[in-house]
TrEMBL record:
It holds the Pfam family DAO. The lineage of its organism: Bacteria, Pseudomonadati, Myxococcota, Myxococcia, Myxococcales. Residues 388-476 form the Rieske domain. This is FAD-dependent oxidoreductase. Transmembrane segments: none annotated. Keywords: 2Fe-2S, Disulfide bond, Iron, Iron-sulfur, Metal-binding. It comes from the Bacteria.
Amino acid sequence: MDVAIIGGGIAGLTTAWLLKRAGKKVAVLEMHRILSGQTGQTTAHLTELLDTPYTTLIQDFGDKGAHLAASSSRAAIEQIASLVESLSIDCGFSRVPAFKYARTDRELRDLVLEVSAARQVGLLASFTKDVPLPFPVKGALRVEDQALFHPREYLLALADAIPGDGCHLFENTKVVEVHDGAPCRVVTERGTVTAQAVVEATTTPLNRVAMHTKLYAYRTYAVAGPLEGPLEAGQYYDSQEPYHYIRTQQVDGVPYVIVGGEDHKVGAEEDTASRFTALEDYAVRHLPVKRLTHRWSGQIIEPADGLPFIGRNVGRRHVYVATGFSGTGMTFGTLAGMVVSDLILGNEDPYAALYAPGRVKPKASAKDFIQENADVAFRFVADRLARPDGHHLADVAPGEGKILEVEGHKVAVYREDDGTAHAVSPVCTHLGCHVHWNNAERSWDCPCHGGRFSPTGRVLNGPALKDLPSRKLPVK
């Protein structure tokens, strides 16, 4: 095999397709089902408006770096448009404007500076007070030629095109070890794959401690419902903290609105269900929607210096990573496929240096690096010293998870709705932090590096590779 690609989301499938098209033999290894990971939770913006403002990117990466960040995002959108056309993919791809709007004078002052920066780096940007929202705003940054699409329809078409001609796509294939070498070895629960190169197209790289100090995992939330009044198709972002965004979507001919945001660090929010409530209240108060019919959450990875890490992993010869996409995973996931495939093929890529995992930008990353990793150290100690939630199984209600102290040891206990109890170790198998219960998703979440486990301890999100070990409860 020429290339083994770990992860069946947009980054993995785009990389696989581009390499196959160039004549390489690839194998995609997906832990669960294709698109069941974070790509399956996306709200599918294709945009040049990045989570890191261009005023900040110019300051931290210089004018050239900020220009490259903008042009690479544009290139990713056009790559998707090209594949939609060449493969005749029916995914509702459409060009729309994006608006980042201000509702206070302070937000407006910052926004005016961002308009100037966006124009400076080459975006089709302008300032406008004409924003097609059903509530007043003081002004907005408008960017032309952004896009919306149905990511599942798009990516299923890519996935269908991968098998054949020596290429393979394996679902329900969990990777447990990656060995760099000539060839590389990727050990899975179902066997070992050898390849000349490996791409870790996972949410976070697998068990790489140094890289994880530069990556911070956050939960993000979304709700959706049918529109009961007009709302112009587009992308809309507010300037609040935590932020909110709005987009339209046609479902079987019915116009829907999607509202997202309310992000928080993984494991840092006890009542995660309250984030859905906040979004639903926001949607009903601001938009022509009376009932929310869908809700879901996802995981986003924030990089220390504001841009993703895409390329050959530090200290590795043949292993590549793609991570830190922030809230624009569809754009950056596509870009990752473009950059990594170029590197593997030996092609010169104009964006590779900007996104190189080994880059050092202390001015951009120092504050977040210190704060985030201090929080990891605090959680590592504090959760061990924290009082348990109870001492008896009766303290855990059906459908709930709690940390109990049983015979002098902490145990993570979940009770199914029928009363059946499951007990696992609360110690994350990545680096040993203690997991917290997520009541909205019914999962055990690690606040240190974002690992997530099912109620019974099965890995849902890396960087952990091993499940939480089961524990016995006393019979009472």
